[in-house]
Amino acid sequence: MSFDFTALRAIGWPFEGLPQPGRWATAIADHPEGRPARVVEQHRSGYIVSEGSGQGFAVESLPDWQRPRLAPEARPAVGDWLLISGEAGHNARAVALLPRRSTIKRAVAGEHYGQQVIAANIDTVFIVCGLDGDFNPRRIERYLLLVRGGAQPVVVLTKADADGGLDGPNATEARALASELEAQGVPVFAINAKQRESVAMLHRWLGPGNTAVVVGSSGAGKSTLTNTLLGRQHMKTGAVRKNDARGRHTTTHRALITLPSGACLIDTPGMRELKPTGEEDLTETSFADLDTLADRCRFRDCQHQQEPGCALRAAVAAGRLDAARLDHYLKLHHEIAGAADRQLQQAETKAKGKPSKRRPGAARRRR
Question: How far is Cα 49 from Cα 40, in angstroms, rounded to an integer?
């Protein structure tokens, strides 16, 4: 079967033509009746896909995707590539889910372990945070932790035009955060999301064939940014509350749209819970410098509390490390270890049909 790769490239197909030998090529060869389509919307009732030309259309999902006990991360998400068969808009059905190149995902809320894929097959993650009351460096660090598979995170500080803006009460903390993150290879920009000229500094990540996802809390300016990049009013926007700078959910579902630049952009609803999945590695995040510093502790199993010779606590005492950043680093270590234990216990329960007796906290011990 021949594919229209020009149309597919318009919605982020990552190859000039067919993929080189590997998991993608194998999956395509195993389903000769299928052709590529990308998930552009995800709803409870099913998926809307696109083949790169014309309007998106509904596709019948695989029966396995409807099973209640199927892990959430095993179901398609916005940005995923499927193989489909049948006529677009009439009897189209999914045949297979192609392997993911990158994701941003979190642990689902609730008693039982699970993962939720926010977006798949992305090149860039725009982490949006306002310079008003929405500003929260610890939340930004959590978003950075959830970016997986080689996607480039970019922190976008919106509302530089708001009261105070770059000269407001959060300016000093924002500059300190930017210095820390840029030292770790994470670009940080302060913009007015309503001005095309201000937003233009993000265009380097929005070239033809690239896919970016916009994440952040409600009221941070994600939809305003999307509208400016698109050049028209596409996403509904709303005002934030003056007392706490929080906004309402103007974006109600994840959706992939194409930009005039040839890139694809995935807009997402605001997320209040950002729980790690247990698969994260702090050495690959903005905390890499703290992990390196922890290697200098006198004791290998240092808990970074009251132990003598703790390099991290010494850095705090000397004013070289912010105490709040260290506390958040240790908190995330604890959460990752707990999530890893829950994931392992769930896997063992499924494999053996009985709960694991493994001691909690043993999956991944912090330094």
Answer: 5
